[in-house]
Amino acid sequence: MRVALLVLFVAGLVGCNGKPQEARPETTESVITERVVTDPVISEPVVSEPVVSEPVVSEPVVSEPEVSEPEVSEPEVSEPETELEKMLRLAEHGDAQAQFDLGSRYGAGLDVPRDDAESAKWFRQAADQGLAKAQHFLGIRYENGVGVPKDKAEALKWYRQAADQGDANAQLTLGLRYAFGEGVPRDSAEAYVWLSIAAANHSLNLGPGARAKKYLPKVKALLTPEQLVEAQKRVTQLSEQINANKDKDKDKD
Q: For residues 91 and 99, what is the distance between their CA atoms, to the nearest angstrom?
């Protein structure tokens, strides 16, 4: 393979006329180019003037203060206390007179539904505090069994407590019970004593004193002279005791 390539190479050199062509040296003129020297361009520096901006002075925003009208709340107007509400408030705080008045209202159904048990309850509270008229009313309740169990002995106890404090109604009631033997054994001498004391409390022939004076002569007629003397002594003793009890109550007030 190498021999074949060599033959081809020689044949090329001989040429067509059988002479080998001389190789002419290839002369190249060197092209000398002058170096163009250009002067350097010196540019002046651009000096820019500083931009001086005027300060923006903003006027202060003065806002007017908000003046709010003060809230004026209307005063609460409470409903005036009714007589019944005041009575109940006092009764619940232990006022004996208010308790008695409340018991009377419930007993009569005045401005409240009638309620005998509620009536007896308030009479009892006032009676426990020593209010004589409440003791008398409570005695009537026990005697008739209204709002409380019927109990003659309990009724007599409350009548006596009220009578000892000078309640003329209780003294009259006690005298009549002994005169007619209602709830107690009949006792004309004891009836005379209490009717005499009640009669001393009369005014212008009105009230329990006047009624006591009406019954007194009839009861007196049933007594012997001896019984009458003893009964009159008891009238004096009890009257002094009752007056002393009244004086104590005045001192408390």
A: 5
